[in-house]
From TrEMBL:
NCBIfam families: dxs, PRK05444.2-2. Its EC number is 2.2.1.7. Residues 316-481 form the Transketolase-like pyrimidine-binding domain. PROSITE patterns: TRANSKETOLASE_1, TRANSKETOLASE_2. This is 1-deoxy-D-xylulose-5-phosphate synthase. It comes from Ruminococcus bromii. The keyword Transcription does not apply. Homodimer. Gene3D superfamilies: 3.40.50.920, 3.40.50.970.
């Protein structure tokens, strides 16, 4: 653990401004050491944060926070910002229950101007802030910091198109580290490469103006003429004026690790009374060799050994099992295509991208496009599978309704990280996909508990279903499986004594906890049966009939209550004149804060101990022990 001689004394951006220029390199070194130390213990987003250390220092030295506003896109590069805004002493709690969030939170600090967690939102939010300031007579500056990967999201372009008409200063910083989580794809990264490889344009322009200004009589008029002609000059040099077309003045590319150069560029951007795009080139993972060599691996990583860079624990998870299964199916079926939104590694599709390259499509951070693109493939007889985290699928709601379900097209949604994901907190919990998809006609949803169930569900989703089919599975690997359980079916499974009068219903990984709860209750002399749903939409009608044979029924669900399977199941029981007691235990209608998965499930009474407690409490209340 370092002594952090400079960093420990930083309590606000004002302290950063007071540092001598010669101390800045030491400060940046201490920041990187603190980032590596903390993330190695807590997990988190390391490589994006290591890449913006100098940029963040320069921002805090150039602007006057919190009067000036900075909106960090996604926010997984805001750790340095947190360290420089009075959160050093609590930084050890990063991503822990009750601790500092891994993303900007307005409730956490006055220096966090906007809550973020998903990509491509910063320009829209920052432009709204800038407009609000103008309406209230506030002359302070507003800055959006967005990565080149996030720029592939359509919302970023919508915001640029709208903000380009602004008649006041508004700054967008494009942090160009040449990659997002996966390698960047599409036309925009190619455009940035064109800009990046011609930095001589800026130098030539500056030197030419400097020389001309010293020529008596003719120098200044010629220089003024050239400034008026800058758009034509840049068009000749770049052969593309994308940012100018949006109405932004382009500055760059700037070395994102040269603080004096960054401060000069930021100061210049502040003086322009119109929208500005400052193009900053950084190195993702800078300062930590394992992260520099494998920036994708260290984008979001669990606990790891600092010396080797190796994860402390690793095990086979559902993502890898899904990827392997899809590869096997695609080997025999040339119609199967795989789609990812810049998450090939996270969703287990790296192997597919190698062995079935021609049928692998990384569309960038563009989930809406991914769904409609899949619909286009399906309309011509292909079998597209879109692998996406549950939390990011939320952005595709309209496309699933309008382009897929309403059109009767057969696409498969492989929903990764379904349920509680833990330390990333509210913005990343996968607890809305079931309620979202439950509201859409022509959608089938599978939710397996084990790897064999995943294979069975994926096969059915591809070959049995003829509409939108979703297969959802959690982060991590398999949990507890009783020795006498057997293999999962495709509809539902029954585990335990059918004549005991007490029934627990659940699905997904909660079945493992329910089995443990069953054992805990048995020790207290209480016998329960478990109905494990494998297909949660539509539910096999015989499952409802089975449940009506019990006196007391509990439904445990790792999702929000509104639109839940639990409520739908309850409605079906009422329609069958069920006379017993029916209890629902879900997350409720609320957001789940950051904490580990085990802590969250325990708090929500959705782990084994919680389920057993709920059953006991309800039985005591109704006098049915």
């Amino acid at each position: 653990m370092g002594d952090y001689e400079l960093l420990s004394k930083i309590k606000s951006p004002a302290d950063v401004k007071r540092l001598d220029e010669k101390d800045l390199a030491k400060l940046c070194s201490e920041i990187r050491e603190k980032l590596i130390e903390t993330v190695s213990l807590n997990g988190g987003h390391l490589s994006p944060n290591l890449g913006v250390v100098e940029l963040t220092v320069a921002l805090h030295r150039t602007f006057n926070l919190p009067k000036d506003s900075i909106v960090w896109d996604v926010g997984h590069q805001s750790y340095t910002h947190k360290l420089l805004t009075g959160r050093f002493d609590d930084f050890y709690t990063l991503r822990q229950k009750g601790g500092i969030s891994g993303f900007p939170k307005r409730s956490e600090s006055k220096y966090d101007d906007f809550n973020t967690g998903h990509s491509s939102t910063s320009i829209s939010a920052a432009y709204g802030i800038a407009r609000a300031k103008m309406l209230s007579g506030d002359q302070s500056h507003t800055v959006a910091v967005i990565g080149d990967g996030s720029f592939t999201g359509g919302l970023a372009f919508e915001a640029m198109n709208n903000a380009g008409r602004f008649k006041k200063n508004f700054i967008v910083i494009l942090n160009d580290n040449k990659m997002s989580i996966s390698k960047n794809v599409g036309a925009f990264p190619r455009y940035l490469t064109t800009v990046r490889i011609q930095p001589w344009y800026i130098r030539v322009k500056k030197n030419t103006e400097k020389v001309l200004s010293k020529i008596p009589l003719f120098g200044r008029p010629i220089s003024a003429f050239l400034r008026r002609s800058k758009s034509k000059i840049k068009n000749i040099v770049y052969k593309n004026t994308l940012f100018d077309c949006f109405g932004f003045t382009y500055i760059g590319p700037i070395d994102g690790h040269d603080i004096p150069e960054l401060e000069n560029a930021l100061s210049a951007a502040k003086k322009i009374n119109s929208p500005v795009l400052l193009h900053v080139v950084t190195k993702k993972g800078k300062g930590y060799l394992p992260a520099e060599e494998n920036p994708g691996t260290f984008h979001g990583i669990g606990k790891f050994d600092i010396d080797s860079g190796e994860p402390i624990s690793s095990h086979k998870g559902f993502s890898a099992e899904f990827g392997n299964t899809l590869c096997e199916l695609a080997e025999k079926d040339k119609k199967i295509c795989a789609i990812t939104a810049a998450m090939a590694k996270g969703t287990g599709l790296e192997k597919f991208s190698i062995y079935h390259k021609e049928r692998f499509f990384d569309v960038g951070i563009a989930e809406e496009h991914a769904v409609t693109f899949a619909c286009g493939l399906a309309s011509k007889g292909m079998r597209p599978v879109f692998a996406v985290y549950s939390t990011f699928l939320q952005r595709s709601y309209d496309q699933i309704i309008h382009d897929a379900a309403m059109s009767g097209l057969h696409i498969v949604l492989a929903i990764d990280r379904a349920g509680i994901v833990g330390d990333d907190g509210e913005t990343h919990q996968g607890v809305f996909d079931v309620s979202m998809l439950n509201s859409i006609p022509n959608v089938t949803i599978f939710s397996p508990t084990y790897f064999d169930g995943l294979k069975c569900a994926l096969n059915s989703a591809i070959y049995v279903c003829n509409n939108v089919a979703a297969v959802r599975y959690p982060r991590g690997g398999e949990l507890y499986k009783p020795d006498d359980f057997g293999e999962e079916s495709i509809t539902y499974d029954i585990y335990g004594n059918k004549d005991c009068g007490k029934l627990i219903i659940t699905y997904g990984r909660l079945f493992s906890y329910a089995c443990k709860a069953k054992e805990m209750l048995a020790e207290k002399g209480i016998e329960v049966c478990i109905l494990k749903l494998c297909k949660i939409k539509p539910i096999d009608p015989s499952a409802f009939d089975f449940a009506t044979e019990f006196n007391t029924v509990w439904f445990f669900e790792e999702g929000i209550k509104t639109g839940s399977v639990a409520r739908n199941f309850g409605d079906a029981l009422l329609a069958r004149q069920f006379n017993g007691c029916y209890h629902i235990k879900t997350i409720g209608d609320k957001f789940v804060k950051q904490m580990s998965v085990s802590e969250a499930l325990h708090m929500l009474k959705l782990d084994a101990e919680g389920m057993a407690d709920v059953v006991l409490e309800d039985l005591d209340r109704i006098g049915n022990r």
